[in-house]
Design a protein that fits this description.
The structure is a single chain. The chain is built from 9 helices and 9 strands. The chain is of the alpha+beta class. The protein has 2 domains: 3-116, Recoverin, domain 1 (Orthogonal Bundle); 137-237, Orthogonal Bundle (Recoverin, domain 1). Helix 5 packs across helix 8. Mean pLDDT is 76; it is low at 1-12 and 119-134. InterPro entries: EF-hand-dom_pair, EH_dom. Residues 22-81, 147-230 form the EH domain.
């Protein structure tokens, strides 16, 4: 399968040559992700759709970095970039690490009747350890009650459905932080415990916690999964201190 390189605004990768089977499958997925039939989809649409694949937050961030295009600091996917992301997701669902080289290899993402399959149960994300560079639970920065209350009040004032904040609304809020879109996608996938592409109040607070910790340089890396120890620490810090 040939691969022709061209310069894109963000990446150097080529126009994919899809097999007939891939073309039929990718056409269907593009139409699902882009029901308006636009020439491109933005970061919000892309994150919400690609997260349905169930690949780990770290892997999704890698796919994003390798395939997303950039225009004046705003990430987006045209059809070719979207196809590239799908090809890498197909490989990632089989346990392979996404690389530029794999863009030349045919793949078919796992699907069900509604679209991409969540394969997290088949390929669970690896818990972090001392080799990842992520601080242990005891080293995570505290979450002051006043800061937590600010996040909860913000959540209460946002548009929700059945007390669940939609993925696109959450991403629009987090984009204001200036944190790169790929990192925000990783954070949202990290805290989305139910894998529903939506967030309850606690999950939104955790997302804000990680965003602000990165913004303040209190941490410099995210864990590939949300350890039970960290969840417990965060929940303990949600409790108002006694005066």
């Amino acid at each position: 399968m040939s691969f022709f390189f061209s310069k894109s605004p963000k990446n150097v990768y080529g126009e994919l040559r899809l097999s007939p089977t891939e073309r039929q499958l990718y056409d269907s997925l593009w139409n699902q992700a882009n029901p308006q039939g636009a020439a491109r989809i933005g970061a919000v649409q892309a994150v919400e759709f690609l997260n349905l694949s169930g690949i780990s937050p770290v892997t999704l961030a890698t796919v994003w970095e390798l395939t997303a295009l950039d225009e004046r600091g705003q990430d987006y996917f045209d059809r070719n970039a979207f196809d590239a992301a799908l090809r890498l997701i197909g490989h990632a669902q089989k346990g392979l690490t996404p690389t530029v080289a794999l863009l030349t290899v045919e793949s078919r993402p796992s699907l069900n009747a509604t679209g991409l399959v969540n394969t997290a149960a088949v390929y669970p994300p690896t818990s972090y350890n001392q080799f990842t560079g992520v601080p242990p639970a005891a080293a995570w920065p505290p979450l002051p009650f006043t800061e937590m209350k600010t996040y909860r009040d913000l959540f209460k004032n946002l548009d929700k459905e059945n007390e669940i904040l939609k993925y696109d609304v959450a991403l629009q809020i987090l984009l204001k932080s200036g944190i790169p879109t790929a990192t925000l996608a990783k954070i949202l996938a990290l805290v989305d415990r139910a894998k529903r592409a939506g967030f309850d109040e606690d999950e939104f607070v955790m997302a804000m916690y990680f965003v602000m910790a990165l913004k303040k340089n209190a941490i410099n890396e995210l864990p590939p999964s949300l350890p039970a120890e960290v969840k417990q620490i965060l929940l303990q810090r949600f409790i108002q201190p006694q005066s």
